[in-house]
Recover the amino acids of this structure.
């Protein structure tokens, strides 16, 4: 009987140790406890006003130039399993944003620009939001004589969906990413 109690105590202690080890962020896989959230993506109209879409002017006929289009994303870092208010988050749960990629999906028209990638360098602390500006359409995509945007100088429109993926790591080295979409309308808006 005494052996049975000792075996039961040892089994309980082993289970408790295994449970505590499984809660450790450094044991097991490489999974972050922080979630990167895109709160909002905003673009600009052809007139330069902020909007929930982007109007990409493929050619400025006034000064005969092409200009890259930018957008802004509001990014937030949230704990997947929030701790009690007294414990608070660890600095290792903050996110270091390192880059982004933009992929275009054709909705209507003759084609879309190729995928673009860019680097970023921002720290997002847990429960805070950071506005990040990024290039959504490059000058090269508008100036490529064989590309779909160059042909729009003579007229026409292309409607597309831009899918933006932001990626980085928490400060413990675990990968994080978030993806969001914005509508984009390509045309020669005759500025």
């Amino acid at each position: 009987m005494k052996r049975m109690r000792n075996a039961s105590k040892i089994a309980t202690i082993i289970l408790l140790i295994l449970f505590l080890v499984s809660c450790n962020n450094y044991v097991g896989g490489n999974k972050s406890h922080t979630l990167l959230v895109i709160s909002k993506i905003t673009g600009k109209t052809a007139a330069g006003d902020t909007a929930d879409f982007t109007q990409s002017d493929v050619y400025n006929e006034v000064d005969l130039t092409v200009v890259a289009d930018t957008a802004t994303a509001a990014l937030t870092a949230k704990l997947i399993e929030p701790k009690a208010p007294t414990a608070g988050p660890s600095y290792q749960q903050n996110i270091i944003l390192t880059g982004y990629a933009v992929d275009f999906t054709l909705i209507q028209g003759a084609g879309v620009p190729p995928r673009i990638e860019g680097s970023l360098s921002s720290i997002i602390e847990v429960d805070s939001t950071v506005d990040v500006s990024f290039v959504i359409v490059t000058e090269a995509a508008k100036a490529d004589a064989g590309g779909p945007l160059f042909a729009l100088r003579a007229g026409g429109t292309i409607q597309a969906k831009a899918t933006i993926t932001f990626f980085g790591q928490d400060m413990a080295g675990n990968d994080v990413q978030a993806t969001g979409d914005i509508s984009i309308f390509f045309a020669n808006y005759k500025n």
About this structure: The longest strand covers residues 95-108. The CA atoms of residues 104 and 162 lie 5 Å apart.
